[in-house]
């Protein structure tokens, strides 16, 4: 079967309890502009809403959407029976793995345990989503 028309992925949407906070984390980590946010809906928690981070002008890449999920449960990594598992993660390319880990920690990430490889580092963002720093 052939795709009937050109398709492309323009964004990844990440569920979270605190969209604005998590978008600011990734904006700082990646050096990408914090493009916009939408306020909480009437009656929703103050930290809810929506936020968007995009690559800088002239840089190719997918946007990151951060969407409030009223039933968000922090995932565990590695996965464990009965616990909320992460269903996807971001791979972030880096040239200096050690410096990138230091920067991610300074931004608010934590280094995951265990580390399955010496070619990349699994990090945990402030809401519990794993992401990898990859050489």
Automatic annotation (TrEMBL):
Pfam families: Glyoxalase_6. Keywords: Dioxygenase, Lyase, Oxidoreductase. InterPro entries: Glyas_Bleomycin-R_OHBP_Dase, Glyoxalase_6. One of its GO terms (molecular function) is lyase activity. It comes from the Bacteria. The keyword Disulfide bond does not apply. It comes from Microlunatus parietis. This is Catechol 2,3-dioxygenase-like lactoylglutathione lyase family enzyme. Residues 12-134 form the Glyoxalase-like domain.
């Amino acid at each position: 079967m052939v795709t009937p028309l050109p398709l492309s992925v323009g964004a990844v949407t990440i569920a979270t309890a605190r969209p604005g906070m998590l978008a600011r984390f990734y904006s700082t980590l990646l050096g990408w502009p914090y493009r916009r946010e939408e306020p909480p809906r009437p009656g929703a928690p103050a930290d809810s809403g929506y936020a968007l981070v995009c690559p800088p002008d002239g840089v190719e890449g997918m946007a990151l959407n951060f969407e409030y999920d009223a039933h968000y449960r922090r995932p565990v990594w590695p996965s464990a029976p009965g616990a909320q598992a992460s269903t996807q993660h971001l791979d972030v390319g880096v040239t200096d793995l050690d410096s990138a880990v230091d920067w991610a920690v300074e931004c608010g990430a934590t280094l995951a345990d265990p580390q399955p490889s010496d070619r990349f580092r699994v990090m945990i963002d402030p809401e519990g989503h794993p992401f990898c720093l990859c050489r």
